[in-house]
Amino acid sequence: MTTSTTSQRGGLSSTALASIPIAIAINVVLGQLVQSVLKLPIYLDSIGTVLVGVLLGPLAGAITGLLANVIWGLTLAPSALPFAAVAAVIGLIAGYARQYGAMHSWWKMALAGLLTGVVAAAISAPIATYVFGGVTGAGADVLVAMFQSLGASVLGASFMQGAVSDPLDKTITYLIVWAIISALPKRLLARFGANAQ
Amino acid sequence: MQRTGLFIERAGFLQRLNPLTKATGALLLIGATFLLPAPLTGAALLGGGLLPLALASLVARRFLDILLKTLLPVLISLVLVQGLFFPTADPTIVAIGPLLFRRAGLQFALDTGSRLLVVAGAPLLLFQTTHPGMLVQALIQSGMPRSIGYILLVALQLIPAISERAVGVAEAQRARGLETEGNVLQRIRGVLPLISPLIVGALVEAEERAMAIEARAFNAPGPKTWVRAIPDPPAERMARIAMLTALGTLVVWRVATFFSG
Amino acid sequence: MNDVLHSHTPIALRRVTFTYAGATEPALRDVTLTVPAGQICAVIGRAGAGKSTLCALCAGFVPHFFHGRLDGEAVVDGLPIATHPIAELVRHVALVGSNAFSQISGARFTVYDEVAFGLENLGVPREEMIARVEWALQALGIDQLRDRSPYALSGGQQQRMVIAAALAMRPPVLALDEPTAQLDPPAMAELAAVLHSLSRQGITILVAEHRLEWVAEVAERVVALDRGALLADGAPADVLTDPRLCERGIGWPRPTQIAARARAEGRWAPDRSLPITVTDLAAGLRAAAPDQASMNGQDGASRSAVVQPLDGTDGALSVAHSAEPIVTLDEVHFTYPAGVEALRGVSLAVRRGERIALVGRNGAGKSTLLRHLNGLLRPARGRALVGGVDTRTTTVARCARHVGVVFQDVRNQLFARTVRDEIRFGPRNLGFAPEKIDALTEAAIDALDLREVVDEHPYDLPPARRRLVAIAAVLAMDTTLLALDEPTAGLDHTSIGLLMRLIDDLAARRRSVLVVSHDIDFCYEALDRVVLMRDGQIALDGRFADLDRAQREALDSDVGLPIALRLRYVSP
To answer: Is residue C5's pLDDT more than 80?
Structure first.
C-alpha cells in the first residue's frame, strides 16, 4: 500500500517539510483574519498546528506549533515568543489525539479540543504570570481582575482566565480540522498515511 | 507583510554583525533582565542597551513604534489590573486621581513591565537588524537542523502568498453567491467554504512542494555548502564567548545567592 | 563546460508498465522509448493518457514518490530508475512541473540563491556553484533578474527560474510536464527558444504537452500516448498529421485542421502533405490558389468602437427586439489601493446571446474589468450596472444571480467532497427550490460530461476535469452571463471541444458568455465579439468577422491574430 512519505531524514519527511510551513502560514493568516474580523474571544491561530498534528503525528505537530510561534514572533509580535512551549504542546496533543482515535467522530474531536484547551491554559498560566504578570493586553484581562478580586493568586487568576477562553477556541479549532480532513481527497489522505477513519 | 518579516534593510551598526553575535547578545540581555535583582533592570537595559543600539542601527523609530504597539496594551493592562487588584497582604495604598492603587501591585506592574520591555525588545531588535536568511544560515552552520531552518524560511515567504490566496478564495466563493457581508449565522456558514479551499489547496500544493524539495536534492547525503559566506571576525567570536561567560556567571551567582538565602 | 557529456543513452525505456497504488488500470502499458542525446521529444495525449506519469517516471518520482507497481526496464542516463533514490537521480535527470509557483523552494530570497539551492544541497564547492549558477541564469535568459525575489516574477519568469534551478545541477536529461500551461504566448515563444538552445548544448529534453501548435514548433520527435500505451512515435510532421490522433481524441494542430478542411473543399493540393505549422499552411494555400491573396477580404469593414447589435450570422438566433443589457459598464474608472490605475474610462455592455472574448496583454486591465462584472470591485468613477442595479448598492451575492464567474485558479473554488456537492453549492446559495437545484445540477453535470465521476472527490480527478467541475459549478447557477477566466489553460483537445459546444449551447439559449483568454485561436473559433484592452481602456470592440485593417493590426500587435485571420490578411 502507499506509505505516506518518501525519504525520511531523522524524523521529518519531505511531505512534512512541505506541509509544515503551509500550516504555519495558515496559522498566521487565519489568526490575523479572525482577530480583525470576528472580534470574538477565539483566536483560531492553531488550525495549522492541529491539522499537522493529526495528519503527520505528534513530532510534526509539536514542531509546527513551536515554529509557528517563532514565526509569529519574527513577523508580528516578539511578545508572543515566550508561549512557544504552549504552541508545541498543542501540536503534540493533536498528534496523540489522532493516535487515540479522536478522528472517529466529531464529538471525540471536540473532546480532544476541550482537553487541549485546558492543558494549554495550564501551561500558559505560569508563562503569563512570570513574564507578563498575568495579563494579556486584551479584553480577557477583565476576567483576571475579577478572579484576583475574588481572592485568586496571579497564577490562579491567569489560569482561570485561560480556562474560559482557551477550551472554546481549541474545541472550535478541532472541529474545523475534523471537517476539513473529512473532506480531503483519498489521494492526499494516502500521502499523509491517514487511513485510520 | 513582506517576506523578510520585520527585517529593515539599513546600513547600520547591528546589520553588519554576524547573526550569532546578535542572537547571543539578545540572550544575554534577556537573561540579565531576569537574573539581576535590581528593580527596573529591564527599563535600564532598554534605555542603556537596546535603544542606543537601535539608534546606531538606524532603526530606532521603527523599533520603538513596534515595541510600543505590541506592548502598550499589556503595560496599560498591567498597571490597571495588577495595580488595582494585585493579591497582596500589603495594605499600602497609592491614590492617583480617583483610583486607589495598591503599592505592591504597582511595584509588581512596574517590575514586570520593565522586564517585558527587554523580553520583547531584544528579539525585536534582533529581527529588525538581521535578514532571516542570514540568521537561519548562521544557525544551521552552528548546528541547528536544516529542516527547521527550511521550515522557518518557507513559512515566512508563504505568508503573503496564502494571504493572497485567501482573497482569491473569498472572491471565488462570493461569486458563487456566498454571502460574506451578512448576519452572524450567514458568516458562520461561510467559514467552511472559505477555509476549506485554502487548506485543501495548500495541502495539494504541499505535495507538489515535497516533490520540489526532493528534486532539489534536499535529502541527498553528504556535507552541504553555502553560496553566501557570512563574515565572522575573530573579534565577534571573542565577544560571543565573553557574553556567554557573563551570562553563565550571572546564572551561577543568582543560584548561589538563592541558596544562601 | 557548456556541452554536456553523454556516456549513456539519456532515456531508455523498455516495455515499461506502471500501475499506481490503489488503481485498477495501469497508467503506462508496455511503453518502449529510446531518446538519443540532445533530442527534444514531445509526448502528447489526452488528459489521463499517461504523459505526466511518463515524465515522473523518467525522473524517478514514479515509483519513489508516487508509489505503485513498476514492470519493465527504465534506465535514465545509465541508471536504472527502480533501484536508485531520487536524491541520486537528480544529478542525472530533472523534472519540472507546470505550476512553477509550487516548485519554488521558498527557502531563498533571491533568484540567484534559489538557483544555487540545489547545488548547496549537493555539497558542490562554492566556486563551482557560482560558475554553474551563472551559466544557468544565462542559459535561461534571466540573468537580469538575479536579485529579485522569486515571488515577484511573472509566471513565465518563474517557469524559467525553476528550469534554471534544475539545470544548475547539470542533469543531461530534462523532463518537462506541461510547461506552457500557465504561460501566455510571448512566454511560450521564449520557452521554445530556450529549449532549442539547451538541446543544441546536448541536453536531452522530454516534454509533455497539450498545445499541439507549440509542439509543432519545438519538437524534433513526437510520441503519442493513448490510455498508457504508445499510439505513434516519429517525426512531428508524421505523428501530428496521423488520422488516429483525431480518432482517439487527441486532435491535430490547427494548421493541420485548417488544411484538411481546405483539402476537402478543393483548396489544397491532394498530393501535398498536411502542414503542422502556420508557415507551411500559408505556403500550401498559396500554392493551391496563388491569385487569391485576400480571399474573403473585408478590408472595408466598418470600424466599430461601440457595442455591436446581437449576433445575427446564424439567422435563427437573431433577436427581433434589443433586450436590456445584462451588464453595463459606463465610463468606469478604478484604481487599486496600491495606486495602480487599472481602468481608465471603460464602457461596455453585454446583451443576451453574445459571446465575447476579452483579450489584452498582461496588466491591460482584464482581471479588473472581470471583477466589475459581478460587483467584486466597484467603480471609483462611473457606474457598473448588473441586472439593472448599480453594483454599489447591492452585494456580490446578489449580482451572482445574473453573472457567474469562474476564476482562473480553480483551487480557490473547490471544497466539497463530491463533484455533485460542489456543483450544488452555487444554486443552493441562490436560494432556489430543491427541485430546481436538482434539475440545474444534473443539467450541468451532463453539459460538462461529468456523469461518470459525479461521486468522486474533485481533487481525485485530473486537473483538466477539475476545471470542468468548476465550470459546471457556476453553470448550475443558471446566470444570464457566464464569465470564464482563462478556461482553456491545461485543457486537452476533447475538453476544449466540450467547452466550445457549451458556449454555443448557451448562446442558442440566449445566455451570454464572456471569456478572458490568451488563446486567440480559441476565442476566434468559439466567440464572435472581441474586446481588446490596452492600458486600462478598451482599444477595440467589434466582431471578429468585421474587423478592419487597423483593428487587425491593433489586435496582432497586442495579442496576435487567429490563424484563420492571419492567413487571410497578412501579406506573404
So the answer is: no
With contact defined as beta carbons under 8 Å apart, do C251 and C46 qualify? no
Q: Nearest-CA residue of chain B relative to A129?
A: B112
Neighbours of chain C (3+ CB pairs under 8 A): A, B
For residue C54, what are the contacts with CB-CB under 8 A and spacing of at least 6? Answer: C28, C31, C33, C43, C206, C208, C225
How far B232 CA sits from the closest chain C CA (Å)? 18
- So what's the pLDDT on residue C544? 92
Beta-ladder partners of C40: C205
- Using DSSP's 3-state secondary structure scheme, residue C488 falls into coil
Gap from B46 CA to chain A (nearest CA, Å): 15
ipTM attached to this prediction:
0.88
| Backbone phi and psi for residue A8, each to the nearest 5 degrees, phi listed first | -95, 140
pLDDT at C572 over 50: no
Q: Is A175 exposed, middle or buried (0-12, 13-18, 19+ CB in 10 A)?
A: middle
User: C-alpha cell of A42?
Assistant: 477565539
Nearest to C193 by CA among C142, C147, C145, C123: C142
**Which A residues, 58 through 97, put their C-beta within 8 Å of a C-beta on chain B?**
63, 67-68, 70-71, 73-79, 81-82
Spatial separation of the C-alpha atoms in residues C115 and A77, rounded to whole Å: 32
Between chains, do B159 and A25 touch, taking CB under 8 Å as contact?
Answer: yes
pLDDT at A120: 94
Query: Are the Cβ atoms of A186 and C460 closer than 8 angstroms?
Result: yes
Which set of grid coordinates corresponds to residue C129? 556553484
Question: Per the structure block, which three cell numbers stand in for A144?
Answer: 483576571
Chain-chain contact of B155 with A17 (C-beta, under 8 angstroms) = no
The answer for residues whose C-beta is within 8 angstroms of residue B189's C-beta and 6 or more apart is none
pLDDT band for position A7 (cuts 50, 70, 90): very low
Cβ atoms C184, C25 nearer than 8 A:
no
Mutate to test the interface with B, among C109, C111, C133, C373 (most CBs of B within 10 A): C109
Cα(C203)–Cα(C3) distance, integer angstroms: 8
The model's pLDDT over A15-32, given as tens digits with 9 standing for 90+, comes to: 999 999 999 999 999 888
Interaxial angle between packed helices A47-56 and A58-75, expressed in degrees from 0 to 180 and rounded to the nearest 10:
160
pLDDT band, residue B83 (cuts 50/70/90): confident
pLDDT tens across B58-70, in order? 999 999 999 998 8
Contact present, C109 and C148 (Cβ < 8 Å) = no
- Which contiguous run of DSSP H or E holds residue C405? strand C403-406
Query: What's the pLDDT band for A76 if we cut at 50, 70, 90?
Result: confident
On chain C, the residues whose CB falls within 8 A of the CB of A183 are 415-417
pLDDT score of A5 more than 50 = no
pTM of the model: 0.88
Buried b (16+ CB within 10 A) or exposed e, B6-26: bbbeeebbbbebbbbbbbbbb
Report which secondary-structure segment, H or E, holds A53: helix A47-56
Lowest mean pLDDT segment, chosen from A75-79, C296-300, C355-359: C296-300
**Partner B, chain A 153-182, Cβ-Cβ below 8 Å:** 153-154, 176, 179-180
CB pairs under 8 A between A and B: 196
**Contact call for C407 and B220, based on CB within 8 A:** no
- Is-contact B60 B67, C-beta < 8 A? no
Would you call C269 exposed, middle or buried from its count of C-beta atoms within 10 A (0-12, 13-18, 19+)?
A: middle
Choose among A6, A183, A185: nearest Cβ to C460: A185
Is residue B249 packed enough to be buried (19+ CB in 10 Å), middle (13-18) or exposed (0-12)?
Answer: exposed
**Nearest in space to A50 (alpha carbons), one of A121, A104, A112:** A112
